[in-house]
Design brief:
The structure is a single chain. With 333 residues, the chain is of the alpha+beta class. The chain has two domains: 5-75, Glutaredoxin; 87-111 and 159-235 and 244-332, no CATH class. It contains 14 helices and six strands. The protein has helices at residues 14-25, 39-44, 65-75, 87-114, 116-130, 136-153, 164-181, 195-207, 211-220, 222-232, 250-261, 263-276, 296-311, 314-326, and strands at residues 5-8, 30-33, 53-55, 61-63, 281-285, 288-292. Strand 1 (5-8), helix 1 (14-25) and strand 2 (30-33) form a beta-alpha-beta unit. Helix 5 crosses helix 6 and helix 7 (164-181) packs antiparallel against helix 11. The longest helix is centred in the N-terminal third of the chain and has 28 residues, at 87-114. The radius of gyration is 19 Å and the shape is globular. The structure holds glutathione (GSH).
């Protein structure tokens, strides 16, 4: 039996590069299996057809990056963990990871499929990653099919003309805030990366390549680009968590305030729509109306976040509750 993991994914997939960076940081030996269609590995194992897919050395196969990251914590306890020791900081890390996975992903999807230059580049990147030497006609067809499928999904995930100003303003806010932060602290919650870093990294890494958001990032937040490169292979990083008893860094407070004005009210409205069986919902975010159809997976994310908050030891919960209250997050938890 090999002691290697196999990570099935590909470069244009935010959750794939998130897991790859996390495993590199944790120094877990793995094979990066990026040829063909990595989704086949999920289907063959009877899992939902999403990537990345991780095969453990004992043959188990799993997907979904957050449960995967926690499975690796159980598998390799204390070995360069990405979960802060302090339960309060661990919760902040979970919240910001989820903000990355489920809110910043709207920016990734919007920029990639809204602007023509980005659509054209993304088609090449995706098709070439699966099969770089495909014959010209088949390659053209594969690119068109992928483009049509993704553009057809935009409204489903909230990437509409109506929502565009909210999504783009939020992207600029995240860039500006992170840019300030990473000039004073190498990672979000210390001089070592947390799950929050990897969740936000996954989406922003793609945004740092797709042409329109990449130009925005380089122009307004070049240190964010440097942070992404640090995270891509952080296997040499040895660091510390911030002091859990000290006030949170200013930019982390800023990100929490922003989550309380965007992602969290979105989650609450989504949960309400799921409960009501509504076909669509509308919520005011950043002073503008934002509308989309309810999304079951994000209903589960919200549930998981609230359960984690409730399950925190009382001392840590009370400490973190005050910053969550000040930033406007608490009322959603
Ligand atoms: N929550 C999952 C999301 C994974 C995901 O959505 N992966 C995308 C690629 S980045 C995918 O496989 N989508 C399915 C498709 O395009 O058919 C995770 O964290 O891993």
């Amino acid at each position: 039996m090999s002691d290697l993991y196999t990570l099935h994914g590909f470069d244009p997939s935010p959750y794939s590069v998130k897991m790859r960076a996390l495993m590199r940081y944790r120094r877990l030996p793995f094979v990066w299996q990026a040829t063909g269609n990595p989704r086949d590995a999920a289907v063959a194992a009877g899992l939902p057809p999403v990537i990345p897919v991780l095969r453990f050395p004992d043959g188990r196969v799993m997907n979904d990056s957050t449960p995967l990251a926690y499975a690796l914590e159980r598998e390799h306890p204390g070995q360069r963990s990405v979960v802060p020791d302090d339960p309060g900081l661990a919760f902040i890390s979970d919240l910001l990871e989820d903000f990355g996975d489920e809110w910043i992903t709207k920016m990734m999807f919007h920029y990639r499929w809204y602007y023509e230059a980005d659509r054209e580049f993304a088609q090449v990147w995706v098709v070439s990653s699966r099969n770089p030497t495909m014959e010209a006609e088949a390659r053209g067809q594969a690119m068109q099919i992928f483009n049509d499928r993704q553009v057809g999904r935009m409204a489903l995930v909230g990437c509409t003309e109506q929502n565009r100003p909210v999504i783009e303003e939020s992207y600029c806010f995240v860039l500006d805030t992170l840019d300030r932060h990473v000039r004073s602290l190498p990672f979000l919650l210390g001089s070592r990366p947390s799950l929050a870093d990897f969740g936000i990294y996954g989406q922003l890494q793609i945004l740092s390549v797709d042409p329109t958001p990449a130009a925005e990032m380089r122009a307004r937040a070049p240190d964010v680009f440097c942070w992404l490169m640090r995270l891509d292979d952080a296997s040499g990083v040895e660091g510390q968590w911030i002091d859990a008893a000290a006030p949170l860094p200013e930019a982390i407070v800023g990100l929490l305030e922003h989550a309380a004005k965007t992602y969290l009210p979105f989650l609450a409205a989504n949960a309400q729509a799921l409960q009501d069986g509504a076909e669509t919902f509308e919520v005011e975010l950043l002073g503008r109306p934002y509308a989309q159809g309810p999304f079951r997976y994000q209903g589960k994310c919200y549930d998981a976040l609230r359960k984690r908050f409730a399950a925190m030891p009382a001392v840590a919960r009370d400490r973190v509750a005050s910053v969550l209250e000040e930033t406007g997050c608490l009322r959603y938890l």
